[in-house]
Amino acid sequence: MSTVAAGTPCWTDLATPDLEAARRFYPELFGWTGRIAPEPEAAGYTTFRKDGRAVAGAGPPAGPDQVPVWSTYVATDDADLVTVRVEAAGGQVLVTPFDVLDAGRMAVFADPAGAVFSVWQPMRMPGAELLDAPGAMCWNELVSPDPEGAKAFYELVFGWHPEDRPVTGYDHTGWRCGARIVAGMLTPPGDDPAAGRPAYWSVFFAVADVDAAAARATTLGGTVGTPPGDTPLGRLTTLHDPQGARFSLLQAGTGRAGRPS
Known about the structure:
InterPro entries: Anthracycline_SecMetBiosynth, Glyas_Bleomycin-R_OHBP_Dase, Glyas_Fos-R_dOase_dom, VOC_core. By secondary structure, the chain is an alpha+beta fold. It has two domains: 114 residues, 2,3-Dihydroxybiphenyl 1,2-Dioxygenase, domain 1 (Roll); 115 residues, 2,3-Dihydroxybiphenyl 1,2-Dioxygenase, domain 1 (Roll). The protein is built from four helices and 16 strands. The strands form two sheets. An eight-stranded mixed beta sheet has the order 2-3-4-1-5-8-7-6, covered by helices on one side. An eight-stranded mixed beta sheet has the order 10-11-12-9-13-16-15-14. A hairpin with a 3-residue loop joins strand 6 and strand 7. The radius of gyration is 17 Å and the shape is globular. The mean pLDDT is 90.
């Protein structure tokens, strides 16, 4: 079982109005198995496993207006302290820290540009037990129209140090936490459809073959947002599951599938 260091993305889960559909789609796509939490207060929250190790979760939306979405959780030793830092840095506290049974303590925030993210303070559940391997989360990236504001915000909140990296046609930043690059940030150019939209965090899963996985997703009822292609991150594609939740696939063994140093 791995324990992810504080300041590092450690977990992802899906908020969806159709848990039954998610329990069919993602195991067929990634080879996951699912375990439904037995506690009534967990509302059917499902932990997905790959080769017996926890990799992601899925649960009902927080409210009737929440769109299906994959969320990024960053590990922390103190969710309450992060809350203070988020407020001081100009972010929003969407959900104040609370204990998730005996699994851990979490909170939900939005950065000044509107990108929503969560923190996870582990107790019984440390976060993902498998990362950077086929069928597991391998990268997390902020897409933001305000890179300078994001650099200031995340450095204050998590101590991340931004490192600008040239990418043809885009402004790309790596977030360094200690000795490692733990996540990234992409600023779309003005002619990109994402330009001017609210900021968001994207979740990437590693797969052995991006093209085959994208084709498989479409047969399962998903749709392709960005067709498979080679990028400085590696070969990737962006998909939507049958309920509309966006996620990306990154080919294992290429680019940054596996956070680089």
